[in-house]
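so im writing up the methods section and need the Conjugal transfer protein TraD record in one place, dumping it here so i stop losing it
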Amino acid sequence: MKTEKQAKWLTDRVQYIRGLKSPNEQQRLLVILHDKADKTAQEIKTLSLLIQAERAAEKAQEARTKVMNLIHAEKRAEAKAARKARDHALYQSAGLLIMAGLVDSQTGKPVDDPAKLLGALASLHELSRDNPKWEEWKLKGQVLLNQKKED
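--- predicted struct ---
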């Protein structure tokens, strides 16, 4: 009638359903018919159909789980790529501070007092972008970047 594997699946599934807080009507009927000793031909047929339906429900749940895992994996990969790009940009910014001689390349610490460096950078940030000094600094910075590329 049933293979050993099918019987084990049914026993395990009935055990699982019993552990549910609120099994659906179909699951409750499956448990009742499974536990019944003397089944009529109609009950055997109903039980067989309930087993098929429960297997299908289990496979559908597994498919939903796989899809959700795939979606979460894609989101994690996107977040990881964004973090990696952000980290790279931060390392490049730190490299600019090293090239300007404001940060020691060996220790990663500011050459001068950190408060002085922060104050100078904050003052620089407050300077109007249309100030001619910005264009002067851009030219000087481009020269330094070109020298670095040649090295």
